[in-house]
Amino acid sequence: MNASERKDAVSATPEVGPGAPDHAGVSVISPVRRDRTARTALAQLLLLAILVSLVFRIELRNCVINSLAEAEWAHALVAPLLVALLAWRRRAYLAAQLTAGSVWGLALILGGVAFCGVNIWPLRFGYLCEVALVPVLAGAVLAVCGWRVLRLCGPMLLVLLLSIPVGARQYASLTLRVETHTLAAASWVLDQLPGATVVQRGPDLDFVAGGRTGTVALGEPRRGAALLPTYVVLGVLVVFARVRATWQVAVLAVLAAPIALACNLIRLLSWGTVSIYGDFDPTSPWPRLIAAGVSLVLAYALFALACLMLDRIFVDEEELEGEREAEIVSAARDA
């Protein structure tokens, strides 16, 4: 959260005690009234979310079916919990930035519904119809809570967008170049392992080690480009666990692609190493699970390290002043 945002949050928090002045001529809202307003807004959002889920029930069912069938989109099954986690982490900022809703929220809702309708007929693009769910939810937030809350809800909407499964053919075409380079790099690295010979034949990485032969990630579709959306979603959770300055978000967004690609390569290398040196049956799920766990832990560590470096190395004096002001106001409210 940058200095101007912190000062807005501070100014939006009323002073307590007798004789508390108005802010810019606006009547002060008591903490009790603010809490009631926040609870009312939350109830309205929950009601709108239920209505939206009923309207988009077919699209939501397709998302669940595709998520169960495709390992790359398994995180979509817990996307609502991830959104709730981010909202809980930002609850104080969301309550402080709550304003009157905007009529543009209704326009955004109608636009999303119309976009979904066009993709049902005559275009018949199922994925775009599911994507229409995101602007509809954004319109609901805007209609109830206003522009400031919508901006703070950007990470939650991004998680939902990254949790909508892309069709298998579309995903394969989008990641073809990534998969090609990842397979080539993994083949070269695994071939350097002691006692192992690895040869790439198309999408297959065949190995010979200790008198054993096999294939890395046998039968796994898109073995060179799996879990890419999951890495990005994990990065969103780590980066937006706290409110950050815009420049920090921009830097971390640039780093997201290299981190995701590096973790994708590590996943395949881990799978190959376990398959070569481990005594697993070719149909055993353990090499895949071990490789996925290693890559996800690495993704979390890399994103956390990038955030830590930005927080510790690049310190803004105005931002520190804003933090001190926020602590003073918080202490006054607790008193």
Give your account of this protein's structure.
There is one protein chain. The protein is mainly α and 335 residues long. It folds into two domains: 1-163, no CATH class; 175-335, no CATH class. Helices cover 68% and strands 5% of the residues. The protein contains 16 helices and three strands. The protein has helices at residues 3-12, 31-55, 57-69, 79-89, 91-96, 104-120, 126-131, 133-145, 147-152, 154-161, 168-174, 176-191, 228-239, 246-277, 286-313, 317-334, and strands at residues 196-201, 204-209, 212-216. Residues 1-29 have low confidence and may be disordered.
SSE topology sketch:
Layout: H1 3-12, H2 31-55, H3 57-69, H4 79-89, H5 91-96, H6 104-120, H7 126-131, H8 133-145, H9 147-152, H10 154-161, H11 168-174, H12 176-191, E1 196-201, E2 204-209, E3 212-216, H13 228-239, H14 246-277, H15 286-313, H16 317-334
Antiparallel strand pairs: 1-2, 2-3
Helix pairs in contact: 1-16, 2-8, 4-10, 6-8, 12-14, 13-14, 13-15, 14-15
Explain briefly what this protein structure is.
With 335 residues, the chain is mainly alpha-helical.
